[in-house]
Automatic annotation (TrEMBL):
Zn(2+) binds at E206, H289, H305. Pathway: Metabolic intermediate biosynthesis; chorismate biosynthesis; chorismate from D-erythrose 4-phosphate and phosphoenolpyruvate: step 4/7; Metabolic intermediate biosynthesis; chorismate biosynthesis; chorismate from D-erythrose 4-phosphate and phosphoenolpyruvate: step 6/7; Metabolic intermediate biosynthesis; chorismate biosynthesis; chorismate from D-erythrose 4-phosphate and phosphoenolpyruvate: step 3/7; Metabolic intermediate biosynthesis; chorismate biosynthesis; chorismate from D-erythrose 4-phosphate and phosphoenolpyruvate: step 5/7. This is Pentafunctional AROM polypeptide. Residues 430-859 form the Enolpyruvate transferase domain. It catalyses: 7-phospho-2-dehydro-3-deoxy-D-arabino-heptonate = 3-dehydroquinate + phosphate; shikimate + NADP(+) = 3-dehydroshikimate + NADPH + H(+); 3-phosphoshikimate + phosphoenolpyruvate = 5-O-(1-carboxyvinyl)-3-phosphoshikimate + phosphate; shikimate + ATP = 3-phosphoshikimate + ADP + H(+). CDD domains: DHQase_I, DHQS, EPSP_synthase, NAD_bind_Shikimate_DH, SK. Pfam families: DHQ_synthase, DHQS_C, DHquinase_I, EPSP_synthase, SDH_C, Shikimate_DH, Shikimate_dh_N, SKI. It comes from Gigaspora margarita. Coiled coil: none annotated.
Length: 1596
């Protein structure tokens, strides 16, 4: 039953390779192919090999047709002719099959089928099949004929052509193989129709590659026909059977696709023919592959070859650009082309982020891998260097120096400052990128215009790129490149726009988003089709937070239909094609002038002539509006400005001028001019001058000139000569309203403007408030980053104030400048970096791409500033303790607190406000001040229901006017009103946070009774409990988080302050978690094994005292909710659990794993109670648990619904095989793994071991997981499975002897696991020491050996007493050396033996800890650190009143005081008094720490303006200094005694008499020791036992 007779004779094209026309291309070739093979490669057996994916789609049909045709042909030959045999064999799909094993399988199959030399093999599939089967053909019976039938795009254009065959081995890809040419290659493009999209995109990388190195005309076709080519593959037209087989039935898209594929195939065939044994020419095919292969070597498990090559191509053209061989235009074109087909252009790309996860490609590793290429010479590598699109520098790969490659690959730069010996040219002339504003406007104008316009000097940036693509998607205009891409030829579409095929994606390009919003309203209704009837504008995450509300409001009012798809007021937008109405239109223009320009640009195409009135007070950035109007004029439309802010725009069509030259971007131009100013050279810019329309063009005259530069300007050019280095003058006051973008450049100059004799060198920049809502909050960003250099800067209401500093005093931040993904921040700080001594690191170098993609190249080659590439790991917040750094630059959505009166909303709300640096608003007070009437009176006069209505109105307007940065505490009854409830629910849907504060209702009632306050809000004559019962459900549905408070607020006197402190601490943890500032989760990247302990109690209360012991050595705690039982039986189970969890969180800071294990999975929770289970899990998310365990056996819909709301909670998707029948090598486990991977952030699979062998099977299973980005917990239960618990890496469940029972059979304790690891050689013993003298009485051995012993670690800590530091050298070199403490007299001279000194230790000037670490390459490194300050920091921090800007006093200015000083600064104490007998030492300190706010004291009895909250004594306890009462003015301050003998010093005694809290020297010693211990072992120290034993010994 076959329909082959109906198949028309296909139209085929042939390409010759190695002088034979053996490549055949067309559509629907099956019958042709079968006939051709049988007739021209006559054998007795045809063996087709394919993979199971392809087999299921095509094999049956193909095999039927083959047999049919074969018998027909043999019939026609004559009676006795036997038709040839057709056999087939299917292998599993995927790269894993390209192995020696699979090759043997195929060979065994062929032999079993008695195949002989008289066999032809057909490789039917993608590159894997082609390579593998080709190799089989090459060696079977010493070589048999074979044909290739490629079914992937990659195989069609690349792998099937050329005769390279191979298999992979564990040592690498393609290591074993042969050259074996196929007899025929049938490229039947129809197979692409079933190809998954990602595979199609993958193949496009090679297609684009070929065009890029070989033929610009092909490249142009690819650039301009993205939609068509994608459609031909992904949405093929199937109007008639066998469409495309003949020329008559071929669609234009099909023809295009065929020509693209043929072109690539032809090129590959050409190269193979002319250069078969790969030298020269063939090397060109390697474009993008040198770097791409290195990336692939790291990412092969998660990324496809083409994806890696795509990123490789981008890096290699950036390299060509940095070497000066390729211009930015070409780079931009290639990048855009790759992107438009969906290929990634960097590892950060959104399309592949989900595959890549947290993996990185360290630059060292990439370089290492590239080194292996046989063709490298010394420190040079061979890379194909493009010199234009379609051209290469040489007809082969070019040698490039490693240093250049490293620079391009590095994510950060380290700028080398200029000095007298650097080779900086004295006069530079350069052109800078075209104006973004003009480029964006001219693109819209010319695309909407009629006629052809040649645009010169267009900016090539992300911004203009997305604008171009966006306009292209909307149809109408045509874009072509000329002069190597220097000129863009636009053929306007006269405003005829259509609904685009897909979403218009704008990245983070604000201008494009604003302009296109109005352009999209122009789309006419006639272009609607059934599938495409609406235009969607979208962008990246940041874009989705940028406001566009005012513009949308105006357009909606004018009759356009626009919907917000996610957040109110932001992209993505959905815009109906209705045309723009026109007539009168009102726009609020106080946020962005771009809204105004957006409407102006599209206005001529409205149905009615438009009158645009600007409302809402002051219009900002008028110059940009003027620019738009002037440019519209150049395109033939005259805008009339009526009185005030009213514009009239006539109807019409823009007339494109034949040529338009775009002036330089004035904001970009500020950077080279500023470099001239700061480095004292001369710089001329020829494409911007006094006639410029751009506001920032005034920068030279208005900012640089008054700062001391010589400025000369013509109409079109600007020249700046800077004064000698270090002699810029501050500008006392400058309003930069007309050039807001240039304020960042001005700020960095102000930072070094110190040439003023009288007084301070302060520059105040004002008028730039709008810069708070740019790519980031730029004012805050500049303040933050300048501070890091040691420059004093602060925010003004509408600007910034900067204290100019001497250049020599500046210091680049150790961790580099953070750029907040903002190009201007990056470029400004690179200006500053030109002079800062010892270099400046700028992270995220790639953010400059937004406006000046080749900034770094220009900085080096044109401006002569040198820099190195630097591979900086992502920031570790772990060690970032400075309070200052934590002030967030951009504020999140406002937080709303609801709950019954008296639960602590206000107290907690204020804590939250302090912590997040938000503003606190008490709703009741707000209500009363807004309406000037007390709530009591309002209710009295108008009644409750009127009050509830008013309450709703006010809460709504309050949140609208305070959308971010506020904490709003609502009245208890807010949920009584349905409208208010709906409003709160909507707020949650828009990703707002509403926190329901709950507390035991009886306690609250008592608390309120005791308060006995006037009850402004009577309880409706009901009991308090009844009110609660009515509201409880409402509170729950109106909140997305729930905080369980155990203590009343701090407003009352009878509250124990330590309880409130614990409450505050727990609340801070909750809050930081839900907003994502600190999620308290276990670091997966950590090299150490991590553990969690399962709490198997039925009730927490009696167990809490044991928590500090039970958690020894663990990293998290599992609360087994199913084991809890509410013995009192009061209240619901959920309430009981909430209380249990709250108790647990008060007594430990470890992250919580919330687990409800069902009976079927080995727990106690009934298997049938699905609803109850999910309401518990949903609660766990509301309570902000760090981890929630979800069993994967529940229904898909329920699980996926639940995890939608997971916030920052990590989901552990778990599966337990309690039956003990599942095997690790079974299909079932793979299936479970896949399911768990789909839901979980962490995968947990638990089986049961029958014998020890099952543990090895488990390990094999893990090794077999090729793609693994998520952490996995795999365990075997039972005694036989204990080995699996020893070997598991991440979050192994453990027990502790104190627990009532083990959570699972076979569970071990941390100590047992460590001992086992030691015995099997996985945890070698290390020796630790104390270096110093005299040390015989030291407590350190007790501290550390107690720790080692408790955790079952094999290590030992010993004293090493010596006066001569030389003696420690052999110990340091010993490989068994694990680390050391260092004390007097070696804290300074030890440094010379160490490889690296931490920044803390450098600043304190002393090392007290040596840590042994292995770097990326496995080299052993000795690190010097200081934990003395950490001891102080951690003991004091919990006692400090959070958020108060307080002062401290240090007594003593010797060596020990430095750790104290450093700790105080890190605690955020801004004024530090220092007293010392002699003042000299204080001055020393003050000059070394100029930013610490040090005030010297000559006497302790001096009156202090800010009484210190904390006193640190850093003098010997034996000193007889008197402590006058004056220093204890602060109420309940803190004393830190650094001496530790005797235990109770005079200061401590006196302080405690005054009601102060004392911290003893021995406590400090233990605390710093605990930090040493944790740094050495990477494990949480068993703190309570260390303390107990050490104090006991200390007393003895
Ligand atoms: N020999 C060479 O010169 C050369 C050149 C480049 C790449 N390669 C090799 O090619 C291999 C990669 O080839 P690939 O990208 O084609 O991968 P592939 O063969 O693994 O195919 C990709 C996936 O698509 C499926 N598939 C293939 N055709 C399909 C179709 N028509 N419809 C639906 N699904 C289909 C496959 O089953 C597979 O899952 C690598 O091993 C690489 O080393 C070889
Ligand atoms: Zn390739």
């Amino acid at each position: 039953m076959s329909n082959f007779t109906e198949q028309p004779e296909p139209f085929i094209e042939k390409v010759s390779i190695l002088h034979e026309e053996s490549i055949i291309i067309g559509f629907h070739l099956t019958e042709y192919m079968i006939r051709d093979i049988i007739l021209n490669i006559p054998v007795s057996t045809y063996a087709l090999i394919t993979d199971s994916n392809i087999a299921s789609l095509y094999l049956e049909n193909l095999s039927n047709q083959f047999k049919n045709i074969a018998s027909k042909l043999s019939l026609s030959k004559g009676n006795n002719s036997v038709p040839p045999r057709f056999i087939s064999y299917t292998i599993p799909p995927g790269e894993q099959s390209k192995s020696r094993d699979t090759k043997a399988d195929i060979e065994d199959f062929l032999l079993s089928q008695a195949c002989t030399r008289d066999t032809c093999i057909i490789a039917f599939g993608g590159g894997v099949i082609g390579d593998l089967v080709g190799f089989v053909a090459a060696t079977f019976m010493r070589g048999v004929p074979f044909v290739q039938v490629p079914t992937t795009l990659l195989a069609m254009v690349d792998s099937s052509i050329g005769g390279k065959t191979a298999v992979d081995t564990p040592h690498g890809k393609n290591l074993i193989g042969a050259f074996w040419q196929p007899k025929r290659i049938y490229i039947d493009i129809i197979y692409l129709e079933s190809l998954p999209e990602r595979q199609f995109i993958n193949g496009m990388a090679e297609v684009i590659k070929t065009a890029a190195i070989w033929k610009e005309s092909d490249f142009v076709i690819l650039e301009n026909n993205v939609a068509s080519i994608r459609d031909a593959v992904l949405n093929p037209k199937k109007d008639i059977p066998f469409q495309g087989a003949t020329l008559e039935t071929r669609t234009p898209s099909q023809s295009l696709l065929l020509s693209v594929i043929r072109s690539s195939a032809e090129f590959k065939a050409y190269v193979v023919t002319h250069d078969e044994k790969e030298s020269g020419l063939r090397g060109l095919l390697n474009f993008g592959h040198s770097i791409g292969h290195a990336i692939e070597a790291i990412m092969y498990e998660v990324l496809l070859h083409g994806e890696c090559v795509s990123i490789g191509m981008v890096k290699e053209v950036e390299l060509a650009r940095s070497l000066g061989h390729l211009n930015q235009v070409a780079v931009g074109r290639l990048v855009r082309c790759l992107e438009s087909y969906g290929l990634p252009i960097s590892l950060d790309d959104k399309n592949i982020r989900k595959f890549v996860g947290n993996r990185r490609c360290p630059v060292d590793k990439l370089m290492e891998i590239m080194k292996v290429d046989k063709k490298n010479i010394g420190d040079k590598k061979r890379i194909v260097i493009l010199s234009g699109i379609g051209k290469t520098l040489e007809q082969k790969a070019t040698f490039v120096a490693d240093s250049a490659i490293r620079k391009v690959l590095s994510p950060a730069v380290s700028i080398i400052p200029v000095n007298s010996s650097s080779n900086v040219p004295k006069h530079i002339t350069m052109t800078t990128p075209g104006s973004k504003s003009i480029s964006n406007r001219v693109l819209v104008l010319s695309a909407l215009g009629s006629g052809t316009c040649r645009l010169k000097g267009l900016l090539h940036s992300d911004d203009t790129q997305v604008m171009l693509v966006g306009l292209q998607n909307l149809g109408g205009a045509k874009f072509e490149w000329e002069d190597d891409g220097e000129t863009l030829v636009v053929t306007g579409g006269s405003g005829n726009l259509k609904v685009p095929d897909k979403e218009i994606y704008l990245g983070n390009a604000g201008t494009a988003a604003r302009f296109l919003t109005t352009v999209c309203t122009l789309v006419s209704a006639e272009t609607k089709t059934e599938t495409r009837n609406i235009t969607i504008l979208t962008g990246n995450a940041r874009m989705k937070q940028r406001p566009i509300g005012h513009l949308v409001d105006a357009l909606r009012e004018n009759g356009s239909k626009i919907n917000y798809l996610e957040n109110e007021g932001c992209l993505p937008l959905e815009i109906a094609p209705l045309g723009l109405h026109g007539g009168a239109i009102n726009l609020s223009a106080s946020i962005s002038s771009q809204y105004v320009s957006s409407i102006l640009l599209s206005a001529p195409y409205a149905k009615e002539p438009m009158t645009l009135s600007l409302t809402g007070g002051q219009v900002i950035s008028q110059p940009y509006i003027d620019m738009t109007i002037a440019m519209m004029n150049s395109f033939g439309i005259k805008v009339e400005r009526l009185d005030g802010d009213v514009y009239r725009i006539p109807k019409g069509c823009y007339k494109n001028p034949s040529e338009y030259i775009i002036e330089a971007d004035a904001s970009s131009a500020t950077y080279p001019l500023a470099i001239a100013a700061i480095t004292g050279i001369k710089c001329t810019l020829p494409n911007i001058g006094s006639a410029s329309l751009q506001g920032d063009a005034a920068f030279a005259v208005k900012v640089l000139q008054p700062m001391g530069c010589t400025v000369t300007q013509t109409v079109t050019s600007t020249t700046v000569q800077g004064p000698p280095i270090g002699s810029l003058r501050p500008l006392p006051e400058i309003d930069m309203e007309t050039m807001t973008d240039a304020f960042l450049t001005a700020s960095v100059l102000a930072a070094v403007a110190s040439n003023q004799n009288d007084g301070e060198c302060i520059t105040r920049i004002t008028g730039v408030a709008n810069q708070r809502v740019k790519e980031c909050n730029r004012i805050a960003a500049m303040v933050n980053e300048l501070n890091k250099f040691g420059v004093t800067a602060s925010e003004l209401p509408d600007g910034i104030q900067i204290h100019g500093a001497k250049i020599q005093s500046l210091k680049g931040p150790e961790k580099g400048v953070k750029c907040y993904d903002d190009h201007r921040v990056a470029m400004s700080f690179s200006v500053l970096g030109c002079v800062v001594p010892n270099g400046t690191i700028i992270r995220e170098k790639k953010c400059v791409e937004k406006t000046w993609p080749n900034w770094w190249d220009d900085l080096e080659s044109k401006l002569g500033i040198q820099f190195d590439g630097l591979d900086i790991e992502p920031e570790h917040d772990l060690h970032d303790l400075s309070v200052k750094d934590k002030t967030k630059t951009s504020k999140g959505k406002s937080l709303v607190f609801i709950g019954m009166r008296g639960v602590g909303k206000s107290s907690l709300g204020k804590v939250a406000a302090n912590l997040l640096n938000y503003q606190f608003v008490d709703f009741d007070i707000y209500f009363e001040t807004t309406l000037s009437i007390s709530i009591h009176d309002f209710v009295e006069k108008q009644g409750w229901s009127a009050f509830r209505e008013k309450e709703f109105e006010i809460i709504k307007s309050l949140l609208q006017s305070h959308p971010s940065g506020y904490i709003i505490s609502c009245g208890g009854g807010v949920v009584e009103n349905p409208s208010s409830r709906d409003f709160l629910k909507a707020y949650i849907r828009e990703k707002g946070i509403v926190i329901h504060v709950v507390r035991d209702i009886k306690e609250v009632e008592n608390y309120l009774k005791n308060l006995n306050r006037d009850t402004a809000r009577p309880a409706y004559g009901e009991t308090f409990i009844d009110v609660w019962k009515r509201r409880e459900g409402w509170y729950k549905e109106c909140s997305n988080y729930e905080y369980v408070s155990l203590t009343a607020g701090n407003g009352t006197d009878d509250i124990d302050p330590s309880n409130w402190y614990r409450e505050e601490k727990d609340f801070s943890r909750f809050l930081k978690f839900i907003v994502g500032h600190e999620t308290n989760q276990v670091n997966y990247e950590r090299k150490n094994k991590t553990f969690f302990v399962s709490l198997t109690y039925s009730d927490m209360s009696p167990a809490l005292q044991h928590i500090p012991t039970i958690t020894h050595g663990v990293d998290a705690i599992e609360l087994r909710v199913d084991l809890l039982s509410n013995n009192l039986q009061t209240g619901s189970f959920v309430d009981y659990v909430s209380n249990q969890l709250a108790l647990l969180k008060r007594s430990s800071t470890f992250p919580i794993i919330f687990t409800v294990r069902t009976q079927g999975q080995g727990g106690k929770f009934p298997d049938t109670q699905e609803k109850e289970m999910f309401s518990l899990l949903a609660q766990a998310l509301k309570w902000g648990c760090e981890y929630v365990d979800i069993e994967i056996c529940w229904s898909h819909d329920l699980i996926s619904n639940l995890i939608k709301n997971k916030g920052h909670t990590k989901i552990i998707a778990s599966w337990h095989d309690v039956t003990g029948t599942a095997k690790w090598d079974s299909e079932e486990i793979r299936r479970r793994y896949k399911t768990a991977e789909e839901y979980g952030d962490i995968i947990k699979i638990v089986c049961r071991a029958e014998s020890v062998i099952d543990n090895f099977k488990l390990q094999e299973f893990i090794l077999s997981l090729k793609t693994r980005t998520k952490p996995i917990i795999t365990i075997n239960m039972g005694a036989e499975g204990q080995l699996s618990r020893v070997l598991n890496e991440f979050l192994t469940p453990v027990t502790h002897p104190l627990l009532p029972s083990k959570a699972a059979p076979g569970q071990l304790s941390v100590s047992e696991i460590h001992q086992a690891l030691h015995l099997i050689g996985q945890l070698p013993k290390k020796n630790f020491y104390l270096f110093g003298t005299p040390i015989s009485h030291s407590m350190s051995p007790v501290i550390h050996n107690t720790g080692f012993e408790t955790l079952g670690l094999p290590h030992y800590y010993d004293l090493f007493e010596t006066e001569n530091i030389e003696n420690v050298k052999p110990i340091l070199q010993d490989l068994q050396f694990g680390g050391a403490s260092v004390t007097i007299p070696h804290k300074i001279n030890i440094m010379k033996y160490l490889d690296h000194i931490s920044e803390h230790a450098k600043l304190i000037g002393a090392v007290n800890t040596i840590i042994v670490e292995n770097d990326l390459n496995g080299n052993r490194k000795l690190i010097g650190d200081n934990t003395d300050w950490l001891g102080i920091f951690h003991l004091v921090k919990p006692l400090l009143r959070i958020g108060s800007s307080s002062s401290g006093l240090i007594i003593g200015a010797g060596g020990t005081s430095r750790a104290g000083l450093y700790a105080l600064h890190q605690l955020g104490i801004s004024t530090i008094y220092i007293y010392n007998r002699t003042s000299e030492k204080i001055s020393d300190l003050a000059s070394q720490f100029p930013t610490y706010g040090i005030i010297p004291l000559t006497s302790l009895s001096q009156t202090l303006t800010q009484p210190p909250q904390i006193i640190i004594s850093a003098i010997p306890a034996t000193s007889n200094l008197e402590f006058p009462d004056e220093i204890f003015q602060f109420n309940r301050g803190i004393i830190v005694e650094m001496a530790y003998k005797p235990r109770r010093t005079n200061l401590l005694k006196k302080g405690e008499e005054k009601g102060w809290i004392g911290i003893e020297g021995i406590q400090l010693l233990i605390e710093q020791g605990i930090h040493q211990f944790e740094r050495w072992t990477g494990k949480n120290a068993p703190r309570n036992i260390i303390e107990e034993i050490t104090l006991k010994k200390y007393k003895e």
